[in-house]
């Protein structure tokens, strides 16, 4: 086959409309073969002889989109020194933009013979390995524009491509569980009805099925086992099989374009902390055989072994320039070529471990800060890993936001009857104790009560204990301390009192989440009453246990959730860009926020401590919103009064007239009748047992002017 020298950049396989350039980095390689495959698996090898700055490259004018390929790397094999090159192992291009086929966990995929850890296995792995695919980069975006929601205007919806759509009756069967299904009008209609501004998709980078799960008859559902950082996961494409290789890229782009047209952003959950190759006993699939010490953190005094800050067997080497380049190139690709709007970084503390400690000034964060593309999209950290000192909530740089695990824990504790009232108030008001010291704003806090990792909202109020027996690990996996409350019965019940209490607690949790300062994130299906039967670790449950059941919708809960999001969207007092000061604005008598006792007076220091710390009122001054709007104008809103009561039924005295002359109840999670309006200042209201009551400043109805001729004549006659 004809081969030209080609270029060392960009890395990967790049089709230019005529032919394809191939480029692969390896500092340890002594030779590299490009392996081309037809649909039947027949292999043709092409030696890459051009090398610049450790990048092996060549241009093949005859190679077109759809071509399957991989690499064989010749070089040193000395595991005791961390070197694992073996040309008998077909390797996936780290920059492959699409893949085809599956890994079947055959012995040949491993660099050693099972049972003989120190041996070398030279079985050829090509027949058992997934291949990279040359893709057509050209796509008609038709003027696609990112919705561009500011953080404080955002409502994020954590979703799973397959789980959200697999059982949707209005999505065509062939599109269920796919990118096309996510972009179906029925799904978009639901998201818009809720008021969602962004979907945060669980991993869609090409991931690998774990052999341990396959042996149990299970499958990797969540996808935190990445092998291809540039490739959309092939199983989520509606077009699969012969002739469809690489079309998942086009389908993903179409999904993004369709969601953008509906005003919905796309955020990807990305896993740059580790790969699917595991530890020294794992397979040789890509990075391990290309340049093991460049891509992985190895134990310094024994490089046979891998540093593991992730609990998965390995950690990417973010101290190495080419490993960092891989991550930044991937991020830039997904923004520039796939048009995504941001990223949530799984176990992000791992990316800050240049040496041992977590360092917020690590090279990765410096490079992101300087990158003109990546720095301009939404950046969300999962601010912890499993290593020492890995819990870093509040510790990330100024241009980052974080999943606020302290918000989740504090809110759960409050509503299960174990409140820490002072911390609860901090979480409601934007967690300034975590973020203000670094110059960040309330929207640095991505607030959530539930996420994929743990109970669903319904299960949170229905189970005291996890029930993960289906995972095949003897119920030993998953978090045991869930801060949940079953309301007296474990799991399903027909008791109407318990069902009513569970429904109220769900409303309490949602109201707290959606009316707190910061950015709310909702777990898909929580608004529908989705249950996983008490399983809080469905990583291996690619089944109806974890898919959304659209035929079992809790309609009242759905309507309540949409109403809450609508209230948040309509009133800027719930989505402030700056922290409260606790002081009055110029010309105003009242502070921007006032914490109120149920007696109608400001909270005293003693009121925050037990046994008084079961309820609190929060006054939000609509004329005390600091910072201008996008046109530089002052932001004004109604005054709001919120009561959070984690105790029994109580009487609350509304504050005096200086707060507002009268109030309308707009939300009462304990109410079943019409909500009262025009409640006078100083009057008493009932705050139900374990409930949230939200009141808005009362306005007399405005009588519209009568534009008729008769009205005009009457007015003239009266002069």
Architecture blueprint of SSEs:
Elements: E1 12-15, E2 20-25, E3 31-37, E4 43-48, E5 50-52, E6 55-60, E7 68-74, E8 77-78, E9 83-84, E10 99-100, E11 131-133, E12 156-159, H1 161-165, H2 179-182, H3 185-194, E13 198-201, E14 205-207, H4 211-215, E15 226-232, H5 247-261, E16 265-270, H6 287-295, H7 321-336, E17 342-345, H8 363-370, E18 378-381, E19 401-403, H9 405-415, H10 421-428, H11 432-435, E20 445-447, H12 457-460, H13 496-514, E21 519-523, H14 555-570, E22 593-596, E23 615-620, E24 640-645, E25 650-653, E26 662-668, E27 679-680, E28 684-687, E29 691-697, H15 709-717
Parallel strand pairs: 12-13, 12-21, 13-16, 16-17, 17-18, 18-19, 19-20, 20-21
Antiparallel strand pairs: 1-2, 2-6, 3-4, 3-7, 5-6, 7-11, 8-9, 10-11, 14-15, 22-23, 23-24, 24-29, 25-28, 26-27, 26-29
Instruction: Report strand %.
Output: 15-25%
How many distinct beta strands?
A: 29
Percentage of helical residues?
10-25%
Low-confidence stretches: 711-719
**Average pLDDT:** 94
Overall geometric form: elongated
The secondary-structure class comes to alpha/beta
Quote the distance from N terminus to C terminus.
98 Å
The count of helical stretches stands at: 15
Order of strands, main sheet, comes to 12-13-16-17-18-19-20-21
Q: Characterize the main sheet.
A: 8 strands, parallel, barrel
Kindly provide the radius of gyration, computed on alpha-carbon positions and rounded to a whole number of angstroms: 28 Å
